[in-house]
Design brief:
Order of helices and strands: HHHEEEEHHH
Largest sheet: 2 strands, antiparallel
Number of domains: 2
Radius of gyration: 39 Å
CATH class of the largest domain: Mainly Alpha
CATH architecture of the largest domain: Up-down Bundle
Strand order of the largest sheet: 1-2
Structural class: mainly alpha
Strand content: 5-15%
CATH topology of the largest domain: f41 fragment of flagellin, N-terminal domain
Low-confidence stretches: none
Mean pLDDT: 85
Number of strands: 4
């Protein structure tokens, strides 16, 4: 039936062409951004999952940084305690020498003078050792490791006691063999204390390093999963673009042809 009011074939062709152009535009957007999902309309569920993964990845990457900072503080503390151990080993030599009988007053004075300098230096190390502007000793060191969820979060910490000669039990003098022998016992105990502290620091450092590795691996795996959900398959997208380009051209040709049918009505009036 010929009609001049409505052309159903023309309307169908126009609707089909509009649909093709919308699909072509979506395909071009995917190619320009490299993303399969550019809005919630593309894949609401996929977008929600991808955004959730992005949050997890951000938390894990920061956790890696947190662990790295914690390891840095612990390495600083261990380096300082290593210096203290060296000083205490020298103190053992001094106390052992002073424990021997028959030394002159001037010799005891010289030995004790050097020993007091060692005690002062131990205190200086304790007060001057800092990381990022904050005192290391007398603080709690560690890191917060998280994937962004409550169940996937943990704090790894260790307390570093204030470092002073008195805190290590060193407060005697080497002004006689008797005093030197008593102080030698204290120095030996202090060396054991420092060794124990370094062991604790090392264990916590290993724990942080392991957690850092796990967080880094998990971030990599989640990034891969996010890419699978979010990123466009370029080969498939290019094929779709080619298809929609052809359909657009044939659709425009079909629309033009359907419009020409209306001209047949004029021929009847001639």
């Amino acid at each position: 039936m010929l009609s001049i009011l409505n052309s159903i074939s023309s309307l169908n062709a126009e609707n089909a062409l509009s649909s093709t152009q919308a699909s072509l535009q979506k395909t071009l957007t995917a190619l320009s951004t490299g993303l399969r999902i550019n809005s919630g309309a593309d894949d609401a569920a996929g977008l929600s999952i991808a955004n959730g993964l992005a949050g997890n990845i951000a938390a894990l990457n920061q956790s890696v940084s947190n662990a790295s900072d914690g390891v840095g503080v612990l390495q600083t503390a261990d380096g300082a305690l290593s210096q203290v151990t060296t000083l205490l080993n020298r103190a053992v030599t001094l106390a052992t020498e002073a424990s021997n009988s028959g030394l002159s007053t001037s010799q005891y004075t010289a030995l004790d003078g050097e020993y007091q300098d060692i005690l002062t230096e131990v205190g200086n190390i304790g007060s001057s050792t800092t990381f990022n502007g904050a005192a290391v000793f007398g603080s709690t060191v560690g890191a917060y490791i998280s994937d962004g969820t409550t169940g996937g979060s943990v704090s790894i910490t260790t307390a570093l006691a204030a470092l002073t000669a008195g805190g290590l039990g060193l407060k005697g003098k080497l002004d006689s063999s008797t005093d030197a022998q008593a102080e030698l016992t204290n120095i030996t105990a202090a060396i054991a204390t420092v060794a124990g502290d370094r062991g604790t620091i090392g264990a916590t450092q290993n724990q942080l390093t392991a957690s850092q590795g796990v967080a880094s691996t998990e971030a990599t795996n989640l990034t891969s999963a996010e890419n699978d959900i979010q990123n466009a398959d370029i080969g498939k997208t290019v094929a779709s673009m080619t298809q929609f380009n052809v359909l657009e051209q044939t659709g425009m040709a079909a629309l033009s042809q359907s419009n020409q049918v209306q001209q047949s009505v004029l021929k009847l009036l001639q």
